[in-house]
C-alpha cells in the first residue's frame, strides 16, 4: 500500500506526523545500510484489521515483515510445538487471555515501550503491551429505549422485565473473556447467578457481535452484549439514522471491562531490535490514530483521539483487573456448560 493510500485512512492533522515518522525512519535505514532487517509476526488479529498498518511499518522502516495469521489458540499451539526453533519474533493477539496463556515464552519489554501505555492496559510482569482497546457495552434499539432506561450494571439485566429482550453470543471469544473477567472480579458464585439469571430471561443467541448489533437496530431485540466498535462499523456504512447505539456500563463490574489487543516479543526472537521498533510504531500517534479511525477501537497512547462521539476511557470506571489473568478459558467453558448456557 502506498503512503498516499495510507494517508487517506488518517485524519488530516495526523498526516504531518506520519510524514515525520516516515522521513525519520528512512534516515535511520540509510544510516544503517541497505538491509534494515526482517521480522516475523504471528497474528491472532485479522489481516483486514491490521494488515494496512503492518504494511506501512514495513514501508516506513524498510524492515521485511512476514505475517502468519490464524486464531489465537492455533498460533499458541504452533509456538509451543515449535519451541526454541520458532521463527516468530512477535505474537500479536486479539485478546489479553491469549497473551497471558503464552507469557512464559515472552521476553521482558523495555520500560520506554511499557511506559507508553497505562498500567491498566499492559501486563504487570512487563511481558506484553496493549496496542488497542475495546470496551464491553450494551447496544440498544433507539426506537424502544433511551439511555435513561438502561441500568449502570450488567447484573441488572437479570431483572424479569428484560424477558425476551436480550441478545448474547455465548460461543464468542469476547463474551467468554468478559465472563472470565466476571469470575475474577465478582467470584464464581455471583457469575453463576448472573448466567442463570440471563438464561431465565430467555435471551436470543447469536454467533458473534455483528448480528447482535443488526438485531438491535432491526428491533429483533432491545439490548445486546457486545464490544463497542461493532456499532461504529454500521454507523460508518449506514449513517446516523441507524437505529442502535451503545450504552456504557459505569458500575465498575465486568460488563464494562475494556479488553485489549496486544503484542509481545518471543524469548527466542533473533530480531529483537526490529521487534521493539515494531511495538514502538504500533504505539506511535500515526498507528494509534489508524486504530481509532479505521477499526474504531480505543487508542491506548495519551494524546491519540478516539472516534468522534466515543466516550473517553477516562470516563469509564474500569475494573481493577490484571488482564493477563484472563487465561482460565476452560474454567469459563465449564461454568457455561454447568449453567446450560452452552451444551
Notes on the structure:
With 343 residues, this protein is α/β, with parallel strands linked by helices. The chain folds into 2 domains: 3-133 and 259-310, D-Maltodextrin-Binding Protein, domain 2, CATH 3.40.190; 134-257 and 316-338, D-Maltodextrin-Binding Protein, domain 2 (3-Layer(aba) Sandwich). The protein is built from 13 helices and 10 strands. It has helices spanning 3-8, 15-32, 47-61, 72-82, 96-101, 111-114, 173-186, 188-200, 209-218, 229-238, 272-282, 285-295, 329-338, and strands at 38-43, 64-69, 90-93, 128-141, 166-168, 204-205, 223-227, 244-247, 258-265, 298-299. Strands 1, 2, 3, 4, 5, 6, 7, 8, 9 and 10 form a 10-stranded mixed sheet that branches. Strand 1, helix 3 (47-61) and strand 2 (64-69) form a beta-alpha-beta unit. Helix 7 (173-186) crosses helix 13.
Amino acid at each position: 500500500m502506498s503512503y498516499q493510500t495510507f494517508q487517506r485512512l488518517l485524519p488530516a492533522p495526523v498526516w504531518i506526523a506520519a510524514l515525520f515518522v516516515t522521513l525519520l525512519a528512512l534516515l535511520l535505514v540509510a544510516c544503517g545500510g541497505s538491509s534494515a532487517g526482517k521480522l516475523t509476526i504471528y497474528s491472532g488479529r485479522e489481516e483486514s484489521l491490521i494488515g494496512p498498518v503492518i504494511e506501512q511499518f514495513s514501508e516506513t522502516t524498510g524492515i521485511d515483515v512476514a505475517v502468519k495469521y490464524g486464531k489465537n489458540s492455533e498460533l499458541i499451539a504452533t509456538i509451543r510445538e515449535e519451541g526454541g526453533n520458532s521463527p516468530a519474533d512477535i505474537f500479536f493477539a486479539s485478546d489479553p487471555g491469549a497473551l497471558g496463556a503464552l507469557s512464559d515464552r515472552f521476553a521482558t519489554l523495555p520500560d520506554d515501550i511499557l511506559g507508553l501505555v497505562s498500567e491498566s492496559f499492559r501486563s504487570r510482569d512487563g511481558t506484553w503491551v496493549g496496542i488497542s482497546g475495546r470496551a464491553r457495552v450494551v447496544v440498544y434499539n433507539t426506537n424502544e429505549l433511551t439511555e435513561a432506561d438502561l441500568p449502570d450494571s450488567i447484573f441488572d439485566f437479570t431483572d424479569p422485565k428484560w424477558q425476551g429482550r436480550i441478545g448474547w453470543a455465548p460461543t464468542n471469544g469476547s463474551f467468554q473473556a468478559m465472563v472470565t473477567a466476571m469470575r475474577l472480579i465478582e467470584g464464581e458464585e455471583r457469575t453463576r447467578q448472573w448466567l442463570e439469571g440471563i438464561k431465565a430471561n430467555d435471551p436470543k443467541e447469536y454467533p458473534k457481535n455483528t448480528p447482535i448489533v443488526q438485531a438491535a437496530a432491526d428491533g429483533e431485540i432491545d439490548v445486546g452484549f457486545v464490544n463497542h466498535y461493532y456499532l461504529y462499523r454500521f454507523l460508518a456504512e449506514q449513517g446516523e439514522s441507524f437505529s442502535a447505539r451503545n450504552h456504557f456500563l459505569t458500575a465498575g463490574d465486568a460488563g464494562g471491562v475494556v479488553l485489549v489487543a496486544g503484542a509481545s516479543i518471543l524469548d527466542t526472537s533473533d530480531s529483537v531490535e526490529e521487534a521493539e521498533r515494531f511495538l514502538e510504531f504500533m504505539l506511535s500517534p500515526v498507528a494509534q490514530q489508524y486504530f481509532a479511525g479505521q477499526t474504531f477501537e480505543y487508542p491506548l497512547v495519551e494524546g491519540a483521539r478516539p472516534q468522534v462521539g466515543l466516550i473517553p476511557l477516562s470516563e469509564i470506571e474500569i475494573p481493577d483487573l490484571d488482564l493477563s489473568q484472563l487465561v482460565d478459558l476452560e474454567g469459563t467453558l465449564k461454568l457455561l456448560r454447568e449453567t446450560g448456557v452452552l451444551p
